[in-house]
User: Fold these one by one.
Assistant:
Number 1:
Amino acid sequence: MAKRTATLLSLILILSCLAGCTPNTLPEASITPGVPDVSDPAVQTERVGFEGGNIGAGGLVCGGDDGYVYYRSESDGWKLYKARPDGSSKTRISNSIAEDINVLDGWIYYIDHLDNNSICKIQTDGTEETKLTEGYCGNLYVAESGMYFDKRDKNNVPQIYRADLDGGNQKLLVPNMSVAYYYMGKVYYCNVRELGVYDIAANSKRTLIKTYTYNVSVDESGIYYLDADKNEVYHMDLDGDTVRVVLQGGDFVNYSSGNLYYMGISSNENGPCHVVNCLNLATNETTQLIEEANEFFDRDGNWLGITFKQWQEHPETIDPSLIDERDGGLKNGLNESVGYVYVAGEHLYMRATLRNSIIETGKADCIARLDDGVTIWD
């Protein structure tokens, strides 16, 4: 559970971001019309075990082609689970703490935190759990052609590898880089200085842009990435020649199938607040998925009558008995926290800390389903 302390850094950041926005609006995206319809069944791609930018967002949720959603459970100690999209038929698959979850051809591939970030796989029925790759691994992308991931060397520097789906024939592809994305025989790589692409068949690589990128996602319409220094989301043609801004501001970015999901800034009667939005790049229409509560509540979900704005601007008006003298925070004060949206087919999920989760389940941390309203899903 997140606890709001005396530090004002988070709220100062909110206010500074809000300075350039009008209330209840977000920065308008600069869009070029004519984005390809990536849902067109005529578009042929290699079958993969991930969707959109889910892996770059931690890979905590993944849809399967069997109608189940595979995820790291918030209600059961981060263990690997599956459930129907409506939350029914919940089944524990493994006691492993999983990240970078991929599902392909009846197998779940994931990184196991309990085993020093090794790569493992297990059948979707929970049988034949197998370790595939030792070592501290990350950014696992699974496709028909193999697994693409990075692994730390003895100097703690990531190196990009490719391996068969059984872990064999492991081969170094790009040294001193992390995997940013995999798409159609090309590995997109990055570090704090550049974003590049490695063509596996041609055994060639080239730099696309010299900047610090994050949350990279690629499809036939192009390359999408967050410029961490400018705090702007960009679209780049697959050839790297044309670059344009699609969103100014925003955080926790995930692009998938023509939609850009991100956390932005808005405000209500209590002051500034975080919101999670979906920007349709073809229509330039923004839909708000959830608004984060910007006031404190206790561990039973009861409002404390203290807003973030009051905490920052008028702390002298707060009852001193509610303040912990040891750290300056509220003694029993919790706050909501939202983050990445995960796409699983036509459904949207988000790991969050929500007051309604306490009321419904007794736990603040949860996975919420965001399509057709907000539902506490796990």
Number 2:
Amino acid sequence: MMVSATVAVYPLRQPDYRAIEDAIEVLTHSGLSADVQPMHTELTGELDALFEALRQAFLAAARHGVVVMTLTLTNACTPTPRQE
């Protein structure tokens, strides 16, 4: 199933933005369609691949300390193949 998501990472009590940068690096190299915006990243792809990319992005960010990741997920905003 194709899905779309918006995801944002917020580092807590960290002196810099390396957690965000590492999460974005993972997402942009995941093979998914990734559009980095100022406050979030928009993703589109297969459900399993998207969840794995999010998992890897969270782990990359969490290596720097405490983080919050927010996610909005939908299957309503993706192109679907025609039913014949």
